[in-house]
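Methods, example record. To illustrate the input and output format used throughout this study, we show the complete record for Ig-like domain-containing protein. The sequence lines were provided to the predictor; the line carrying structure tokens was produced by it.
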Amino acid sequence: MTKISWWKDGKDLKRYATDEIQDDVTTSKLFLTPSSDDNEKVLICRAENPVNADSALEDQWILNVYYAPIVTVTFAASQQNELIREGSDVHLECNIQSNPPATDVRWRFHSKSPSSRPFQGSPSEE
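The corresponding predicted structure is encoded as:
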């Protein structure tokens, strides 16, 4: 009897799989709900015959999980420990993790698009 196992990034997924044996054919189905953390992880299906030690075969896929953007806004590295004073420039970074990658980033401040002062590179409220 063929033994089939599923692996994701080196972890056994046997609790998510069901096997069906019909005549001399074994079929295994994996039930997986991927998350953003699974993107680019390796999924492996491995089959082996316990009677023959050198019989193992496997196929693998790199997971391509599409997910909505995860956005964090932080102070720029040069400004992390500074206090914000009224009238001073504030430098922020918008970090976006998504698949597919974000191609359009827009800033909003009090429901308005900020404008940049081109020579100073700092946004100001319209």
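Annotations derived from this record:
The radius of gyration is 25 Å.
The chain is about 0% helix and 45% strand.
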